Amino acid sequence: MAVIVSIPTILRTHTGGQKSVEAAGATLAQVIDDLETNHGGLKQRLVKEGALHRFVNVYVNDEDVRFAGGLEAAVKDGDTVTILPAVAGG
Amino acid sequence: MLVIRRDLVDAMVAHARRDHPDEACGIIAGPEGSDRPERFVAMDNAERSPTFYRFDSAEQFRVWREMDRNDEAPVVIYHSHTATEAYPSRTDVSYAGEPEAHYVLVSTRDPEQYELRSYRIVDGVVTEEPVEVVESYMFAHTGADDTPDCP
Fold it and tell me: What is the ipTM of this complex?
């Protein structure tokens, strides 16, 4: 099952500069594990202590996974996973 | 150095004043690679707070996708401080995720006189930069606003 993962500028050092890469998995967690095998270092930028890092937003198609099961969010063949740095501060 | 048109500065300040005492936030998009802010986008502060801001994630997704379609980048990311100076807070630094953006801070703590400053924030390091406000980009050596700038 292949999905397209859109990578933000700040993480492209892990993908050799590519804006989007392919990955496989039935859940977001599996997609991230698959990403890690080909693009080492990405996982620790996204996941901390078993949950998505609060500094990043991850969307499956156009839905924020925080409202769709987080790392357990279902992913289907042909879906697009978009990673964006959260824009926040004080 | 941030070179920016006066109407865009005015738009950021007006937004910050409008939302005071809550923090206001948004971006100014520009052509990818140009470093030239052009398209003003006021964003919702999902936190509606005087001490914190966060882009609404659904709105951010729509705006980022639109920039992608237009071959644009978030050249400026701005927010206001409503009771303190226009300098990045610790949370601003820990969240900063766009190394190529100019982080613009507007302080509205003085009702008469705003303060606007710009920074790069890369890997947790804050570097202030000068801001040059221009009427048009035509002679600002930034390209566009419909050309001139003799070579």
Answer: 0.90
